[in-house]
Specification:
This is HTH CENPB-type domain-containing protein. It comes from Hericium alpestre. By secondary structure, the chain is mainly α. It has two domains: 69 residues; 40 residues, no CATH class. The chain has six helices and no strands. Helix 1 packs antiparallel against helix 2 and helix 2 crosses helix 3. The protein is elongated and about 65 Å long. It starts with 7 loop residues before the first helix and ends with a helix.
Length: 115
């Protein structure tokens, strides 16, 4: 399969994933500070150290809040591995000269989700 340039959507998703990684590291440090394992660091100092917004960091530390990525992952019908398999299958059928219509792909998708 040939490599293609990443679309704007894919670039944004990669950036969001990197930001989530940075935010998770900052949350870990802030929780350690709250447990008195790291004395003397404020939420703003930890956020600045990790390059994330201090308001978002303080909001995400609260247990009732979750990130956009976590929220969107809960709405996903397929696991990422099953999604990759479906995408590869659709692309391979198109490469063979039998492209799936939207309705055919949707029907196959829902048959896999229900199974």
């Amino acid at each position: 399969m040939t490599k293609r340039a990443d679309s704007q959507r894919v670039k944004a998703a990669k950036l969001r994933q990197a930001n989530d990684t940075w935010m998770q590291a900052a949350i870990k440090d802030l929780l350690a500070k709250k447990e008195k394992l790291v004395p003397g660091k404020s939420c703003q100092a930890i956020a600045k150290e990790h390059g994330v917004d201090h308001i978002m960091l303080s909001r995400l530390v609260k247990p009732e809040n979750r990130s956009i990525s976590d929220f969107n992952a809960s709405k996903q019908k397929l696991t990422p591995s099953k999604e990759r398999v479906m995408v590869e299958w659709i692309c391979q059928s198109a490469d063979r000269g039998f492209p799936q219509t939207y309705d055919q792909a949707r029907k196959d998708l829902y048959s896999h989700v229900e199974a």
